[in-house]
Amino acid sequence: MKLKWLKHRPNSKAGVSWGVPWKKGQLKKEDNITLIAEDRKKIPIQSWPMAYWPDGSVKWTGHSAVFQPNGKRYELKVGENQHPINPLRVIDSENQIIVDTEEIQWTINKQGSHFIEKIVSGSSVLGEKGRLMSIQEVRDETSEIKSIQQIPFETKITHVEIEQDGPLRCVIKIEGEHVSSSKNHKKLWLPFHLRIYFYAQSPSIRMVHTFFYDGDPQIDFIKGLGMEFSLPLSGEPWNRHCRFAGDEGIYSEPAQILLTRRHRHADGLYEKQIKGEVIDLSQQKHQNLLEHVKQNAIWNDFKLTQDSAEHYRIVKRTKNGYSWIESTHGSRAKGMMYTGGEKGGIGIGVKNFWQKFPSTLEITGLNHAATKVKVWFWSPDCEAMDLRHYSEETHVVSAYEGFDEMRATPYGIANTSEVFLQCYRAIPSDEELVEKVEEWQAPILLVCEPEYYYETKALGVWSLPDTSHPVKAQLEKELDKAICFYKREIDQRRWYGFWNYGDVMHTYDPIRHQWRYDLGGFAWQNTELVPNMWLWISFLRSGREDIFKMAEAMTRHTSEVDVYHFGEYAGLGSRHNVVHWGCGCKEARISMAGLHKYYYFLTTDERTRDLLIEVKDADFALANLDPMREFYPDDQYKTHVRVGPDWAAFCSNWLSEWERTGNIDYRNKIIKGIETFKQLPLRLLSGPTFGYDPKTNELYHIGDGIAGGYHMIIAFGGPQVWMELAEVLEDKEWEEMLAEFGEFYELSQEEKLERSNGKLHNKLFNNRMLAADIVAYAAAKKKSPSIAAKAWNLLLNKEVNQVMLPMEENEIHVWRKLTEVPTITTNTTSQWCLNTMIALELIGDYLPSNLKIHDHDDMKQLT
Description:
The chain is an alpha+beta fold.
């Protein structure tokens, strides 16, 4: 297969990991894989299986390699691998792990408070004592005088393991929690996972940090959350520098400047100093300058704080106890700082730094024997993290908040950040730092061509773009408009911030010219109607980096913030709400594996793999929280599931576990449900609600046409999961059941009643556009032009599809200039786009060439 860079290639030698799919039967477990560059030379590669087809052949493989900056395209194929000349060396002892990349030796502690003990190059210590830290804010608001106490916490490591130990890449996972160092405030809180990625011959590491909230939001406010390293820098204060990546280039400051009142130019030395060059003042001709320079203030502490998506400031001070002086302001900092002396230093970068504000990069003691550099994921210079709910009551009737139960808890949610650390044994130029920060902020990833992803059939049913047909060309234009609108809307509406970045809003309010951010269930989307799938399939069929970045951010957010990783609701997620964890509906559809596995398979990200494992048995969570408890409180079955979204989400989770591990117990869970449907008179149309036993996976039929809603079955990824299952199971009756469901959705009232013996009718089948893909599936399986016409009607008839075609943006002038689509909702947009991309694959051949997608008369003629 052919590989190319997603967009950016490394600017210097860099380790990269990526995943690729294989057609069924193409790759055996025992096969070797080789990587070939454009010049036909083999590049050493480390490979491992990530998923399997039912016949045992490999479905997805993960790969790592170290690349030079000059390569553009590569080829991956079965063949003898090229082994690295200088592989990684990993020494695992009782208390420490030493990773030797040849460039750098990293010592990892297995206990204590410092996860990195030392960073060594040859005989030089470049850094040491890497630790995580947090600050709790304790408030006393019982009197008129408000008092606030800030309590520092540090790392307590509880478990360390080598997850991958290969010749080119090593992954170490560190688990622990934060412990208070205060004698009067003993407490453990905020569990964390930290993965560190090492590559052979690399002077840098990548760290993926996840923290979990386990506090009481009424009293446990997080003032700061970050990590710290100690650097033993060398050199005089005028040769010690900090540099920050600003909006575009590099802002540089020395600890002590050479500029003085009497020496304004200093023979060009000042200019060289600001560029980062080492300045030697030992010569006799510089003695007068040296005397004046030594009288200049020594600036030891520096901070760059991004306090909003539109503003950062850089400040400095001489030392603790003295005022901070403002250096400069800017808009969107790139999230990198370099700290160094005469013999080099260390650069640290935070991915999505300004997007996930409030964040800070801090240097303390620049002229001290041990300089400390700090990365704050949540800046202590801003308001403390407040995870309380927005209201003391639920707003079910007026604001679509689900159940009348107050379950608005953040206990068990998480947030993941990525940090890069680069060792420099010589002083880097500003150009080098700019190249590095661009590399850190962009996905450096090898990908396949869309045609290859499509041919493997490894991620369900979807189409490649096709503009050869006039109607298809119109549809492709509308699909592109939708992506471009949300890409711009994210920035226009400033959908950024530590807890928000990656999510989008649910429904627009054209009267206020604002999304319904404050109206219960109409605010944040939280995976409602699977926008994740829309974005990921849009990427697969286009290969566009901008779409990948949108999908990546949404995956990071929705898989962590919207999902519970422990506690009462472990394995479930929160439905859409004003705050991400605010809705009383805690359901499996929000956390299902099918929303997030794209990212894992394309990038090999181990944190996402954790999340897929977390939900493999999410159905057990329903034993304590029945999703249909409002409708069947006194039923003989303690737990109920709807065919969709509940059982469909479980199918997604089980398919993920089965394909990743080969564990047939999870295949059998799927088959047991399918076999149950096969025995029922209405098959998949039965229910839509069943009694359920998570211990046995037994579905208990309690009637047809009962509460649950057939549109719920197909609105949350059910058809996409089941079509993918059909590709895997090769069960003809299952395929017939899917086609039967799709055909039935668009039958007339009379036909529905006749086929169901009077049990099912039109009122049970609402929001018909949501069924377009499953209706298209029926048309394709039955080779029926009439069913295909019904499917296209659902997508193109404005009286049915709930979207305005073509999409038109209006420019308005209110409190500021905005562009808006007054009727937009993310529900209908994501579902229309997703269903259209599937329908183009299944029934694209049934489109008449003279159809105009905005012409209602044409739609009448079509149907």
